[in-house]
Amino acid sequence: MNINTTNNTNLKRGHLKSKKWALVAGGSGFLGQYIVWGLVCNGYSVVLCGTRRNGQNISHRIEKLKKFNEMVNPAFRLNEHQFCAIKAIECDIKDSELALSKNDRQWLQTIPLCEVWNCAAYMKYDVESFEKSYATNVTGTENLINLVKKYPSCKYFHVSTAFIGGKDFTNGAPIRERVYENQKGFFNSYDKSKALAEQKVLELCSEDDLDYSIFRPTIIIGDSKTGFTSSVFGIYEYYGAFDKLRSRLAGKSLSVMCNNNSLAHLIPVDLCAKAMLKLSQLTSTSNTKVYTISDSRPRTYDDMLAIIERIFDISINPIHRVNKNESKYDRLFRRLTAKNHIFSQHSFNFCNKEMCQLIGESICSDWSKNYDFFNLIRDGFNQYVDEYVNFENN
Q1: How far apart are CA 378 and CA 382, in angstroms?
Q2: pLDDT tens-place string over residues 62-77
Q3: Are residues 210 and 313 in the same domain?
Q4: What is the span of the domain harbouring residue 252?
Q5: Same-domain status, 85 and 187
Q6: Which residue, 22, 130, 236, 383, is most buried by CB atoms nearer than 10 A?
Q7: Helix 371-384 to helix 235-249 angle, to the nearest 10 degrees?
Q8: Helix H or strand E encompassing 242
């Protein structure tokens, strides 16, 4: 990925000089911010769309975006002038008009928007959250595609999840790069809403012959170069649980549920964004519209647990079913990591053939899977919890 060499004069003058404009919904999220940084590095001006959160307006979150940018893979770092290529606006994709202000709505009509990226997501897994998941992940998708239709030759890029197959694929059958209609149901509200969103993309983009692509990342982890994260989902729930329990175990082993055939389908966030950005430049040459962003050579969960034993200096006993005589710490660990049991207790296999044919497998596989790397990931997690989560909760 090349750093943009647009001269400083144009950048100081603001956004209207750019010939390439992209709008990124969810652009202040964990993956979304890398898409924003990467687009700017590639010469785009970017409209960053975000909702007001915890009483903080979008301007506050842009300041956090600048702070985060100091801690990422150098290929994604921006200088002060490049940040002038980002215009943040408040919106809500659940609203049919995106809840834009009158001024922002009029301004959007004046720019040559050529790409819309949907990185927004409501990531609650419980059944009670399905209505909210549907509103953001499905209705929000429809509203963004309706925006795309207003711009000639505008492309739509949709971020989904590799676990779209739900219960249909727990036997290890490969989830291929196509849109599915699931027969056996889903493990949680998030996966279900994302599957329905993919069907919505296929339906709406096909009827208007829109240029679109669907990207399916596996489990996203911290930056491959720095360990940085701004998310506490996924593998970080395990890190948090181990941190809470290790001082209480007093030399006792901790039982962890794990399927022998399960693979840890992890992908560093910077490499995930790099793959998507590369694919977005090449999709017009391919008939395929769905791309799985996954590691072609993933570790097993047994390997992962062995590494985690060393990182946290605890004894782990992999088990395949709940022990009737489990300890209170075993029960607590299961509760703390309940949202992610799907990943460690079922065998998933992902086909990423189309992705690899276009950009090669090394873009997602050429990263360290050793002890030092996962220790780096832990440091990034601790830094985020200490500096941002605890700060904002106080």
Answers
A1: 6
A2: 888 999 999 999 999 9
A3: no
A4: 235-264+298-348+373-393
A5: yes
A6: 22
A7: 90
A8: helix 235-249
